[in-house]
Amino acid sequence: MAARFLRVSSLAAAAVASCGIYLHNRQLDLSDLSVIRFGRAAAATAFISYDYLTAFKGVEYGTEDYVALRSKVHLRSAERLRDLCCANRGTFIKVGQHLGALDYLLPEEYTSTLKVLHSQAPQSSMKEIQQVIREDLGKELSELFVFFEEKPQGAASLAQVHKAVLHDGKIVAVKVQHPKVQKQSSRDIVVIEALLKAVHLLFPDFAFMWLVEEAKKNMPLELDFLNEGRNAEKVAKMLSHYTFLKVPGVYWHLSSKRILTMEFADGGQVNDKNYMQKCFSEMIFVHGFVHCDPHPGNVLVQKCPYSQKSQIVLLDHGLYQVLHAEFRLDYCRLWQALIRGDMSGVERYSRRLGAGDLYPLFACVLTARSWTSVNAGISSVPVTQSEENEIRSNAALYLPQISELLNRVPRQMLLLLKTNDLLRGIESTLQTRASSSSFLNMSRCCIRALARHRKTKAASWIRRVHITLMESVQLWTITAFELLLWVRTSALAHCFMALLC
């Protein structure tokens, strides 16, 4: 017996040693092994599930003690999820970033904790970067660039960006994909899907399968940098009439599926909300081609070297949403109804967009406003801090209903909700959430989009002229209203009223 145990122990030791030598020789990181990645994810899911199953025993639902305990459980779970994303990297960080952007859809403990993933993405070594460039472009760094900055300008979940100088002296930004992401992403999505299904069995109200569906659809697109280059050129052409917008040009001969070389753009993070609102309202309502990741790191402000005026520089074009015409027009009509306080229109177009009987919740989620403000017309009621707090607390209170809503609405709506929340986050940072200007810009784009659609359906030139005149009247009405608001809030108006009094 002892001899058999010794033989088995010797064989096991030899096997472990062999595996260790193999992994060392291949310089494999244990984190790259699927079994390790799955084990981490399964363990984190088990801990989080057990916490929610056991933490509330003996605590009465709805009491102050329950609310306080729920906040603590949310925070513990969010921290475990954040740590899992940081350990597994790649797709896990991308999914965590998506959740962190849903400010008005998820409990604040989750969104505030997961937001740090935008600044905690992993970095690839210079050796790995050189290997990707060598494999995809077939040349060494020194053959392509006279200078290549080793420290990246920024690192994200899927890639990192380096500043470089070409042999003709032009400064470029070289975006290089992390070498292991392509291979790991499909496996990671399978793991996330399996674990979400397991959680759904334990907690039927937790129905976040839409998250997996979006990852399956969008991850291959985001991992194809040639697709990103084409998106950049398309949006540059589409919004070329905006002189304040700059989209860096693509160097196609230095680009591949894993490498994207573009003009280098420097600048501070976005600080002009009016430009942002015009760009994104036109993308959504008029063209239906929407940049779906406008967090501050992807939107810079610089001075144009020729005009000396401020320019918005739009970066990272990997994730765009193409809106179907019928969806886009219903979305336009819904926003017009929300702005005017037309409740029959709000119900009609919310239902057409898949919200069903949850249309009041859908209206609040879409606008990040209370039901009282929605009834009054969101353009006429400024956002208050108490309303902000109410909306954020409701994200925790109505999580099962929000989860059901997100599974009901068309998939196109999901990335729009994320885009809306990211833009609102920028407005909150700039302290401009209470302003009506965003709604006025949206109104203009909705009017233009619907007028364009009606003209395509018009049977005669007289009808087209009539539509054009009505469009002009509506646009001038908005301009007059905007002027009135400016007069009311301007210092000159206050001085004039003071003199009269």
What does this structure look like?
There is one protein chain. This protein is an alpha+beta fold and 501 residues long. The protein has 3 domains: 26-121 and 186-219, no CATH class; 123-177 and 224-234 and 248-264, Phosphorylase Kinase, domain 1; 325-488, no CATH class. It contains 21 helices and 11 strands. The chain has helices at 2-25, 34-54, 64-88, 91-100, 108-114, 126-137, 141-144, 181-202, 209-222, 225-238, 273-287, 325-340, 343-352, 359-367, 371-376, 385-397, 399-408, 411-429, 437-457, 461-489, 491-500; strands at residues 145-148, 154-155, 159-166, 171-177, 245-246, 259-263, 268-269, 289-291, 299-303, 310-314, 320-322. Strands 1, 2, 3, 4 and 6 form a 5-stranded antiparallel sheet that branches. Strands 5-10-9-7 form a 4-stranded mixed sheet, with helices on one face. A hairpin with a 4-residue loop joins strand 3 (159-166) and strand 4. Helix 2 runs antiparallel to helix 3 (64-88), helix 4 (91-100) crosses helix 5 (108-114) and helix 12 (325-340) packs across helix 19 (437-457).
